[in-house]
Amino acid sequence: MRFQHTLLGLAFFAIVSSGCGTESALAPERAASQPSSNGSETFVLSSTGDSRLPTPGLEASGATTEDVALLGRLQTAASERNQDAASNPVVFWNSLTTQLGLAAKQPPPLLARSYALVQVGIFDALVASRDHRRGHLPEHAVAAGVATQVLTYLFPQDAAQIEAAAAEQIALDGERTGPVLGAWSMGRAVGRLVVVRGKGDGSSTPFPGPMPTGDGIWTGANPVLPMCGTWEPWIIPSGSHIQPTPPYAFGSAEDMQDVQEVLDVSLQRTPEQIEIVHKWADTPPPTIWNGLLNDRIDALDLDLITSARAHAYLNAAMADAFICCWATKYKYWTARPFQRTPALVTVITTPNFPSYTSGHSTISAAAAAVLGEVFPSQRDYFEGQSEEAAMSRLWGGIHFRQDNEQGTAIGRLVGEQAVERMQSGGRLRLASSE
């Protein structure tokens, strides 16, 4: 259902009045109370007692020869450890994922996949490591074991940098050789399961073609990730499970109104609007939303399991939202504004994939729902950021209003599914979508 233009205008006014999209002061709160992480919440593991994990209490003896050799090299390399590595390991590895993903120029859906694989793996490993039968496994080594395995799979060319980061983290657990080896073994075991999941999620499936043709159809070469809509999601059953209504018929009154609006907006952009366009375009949206969560983890000094849980759900929801959005994009293959209006001047370069629906709008709405659940007093702020991200694409000249409104609506539904799972402690009741 189309949102009223007036309501969006009021939403933008509220955002601008509070600082033109800049972040407001953090509310003096902790993260919302949460169900206990009892294994039903895990994503890759069947439970904390998953038979594929090292035997409780005997984690060190379950380490592979490769794991033992790698840990030895890392402990030797960390003789002069970096004290700056003492940050929350969830944030530490998230930041390294950002650095490697941006350097590799991963398209946003692929970057969201990378974030999800790393953060889900760390969460599952930390939940399992807290099984009382395992004692007190050093948590920096647990997280490092997962992260090195997953990040090296994602960015094999950066293996040396990843190992150097792991050495810094492991050094923080001290010289307790047995417990550190057990924790490392535990993390590596979970990491291997995450890699298996990644290799089987469909992300390497080639596009069989052909591209469609016709009035109002996107034209271009080498479209970005046309099979993304078929990838395996984390929370919802499939990318086709939550889908919007079809785009307006080409040449219809609604369609022509959207086309005209993009041109009209382009002729009267304000400096504030242009600034917001760049805010959401110069940095990939998954990175922006991860940064918002990291800021709150640091400012509120959130404990490790709360941090890991928030990151797992945030990034799983964004990855799923991209899958839904890309399923829509490559179902309809709708033309971009500049392909409909040759005189249009855009603020930024139009991405190389179809228009309907907007990825920024979809994943931002999903992210806002998850972060609003974790930080209830800031829910309005996150929703405002989501609306701003959506409007930025219209102001930039690269999306139609319908792209943004339908993307936002679908993203909210994906976010609601993630929140339902969070509230039920992992036992998701799948709601049908319309």
Key terms for this structure?
elongated, disordered C terminus, 434 residues, 57% helix, mainly alpha, disordered N terminus, 0% strand, Vanadium-containing Chloroperoxidase, domain 2
Structural features, described:
This protein has helices at residues 5-17, 65-77, 89-103, 108-129, 139-154, 159-171, 177-199, 253-266, 271-281, 285-300, 304-332, 337-340, 359-374, 379-396, 401-423. By secondary structure, it is mostly helical. The protein folds into two domains: 65-199, no CATH class; 223-423, Orthogonal Bundle (Vanadium-containing Chloroperoxidase, domain 2). It is elongated and about 70 Å long. Residues 1-28, 35-39 and 427-434 have low confidence and may be disordered.
Explain the layout of strands and helices.
Elements: H1 5-17, H2 65-77, H3 89-103, H4 108-129, H5 139-154, H6 159-171, H7 177-199, H8 253-266, H9 271-281, H10 285-300, H11 304-332, H12 337-340, H13 359-374, H14 379-396, H15 401-423
Helix pairs in contact: 1-14, 2-6, 3-4, 3-5, 4-5, 4-7, 4-11, 5-6, 5-7, 9-14, 10-11, 10-13, 11-13, 11-15, 13-14, 13-15, 14-15
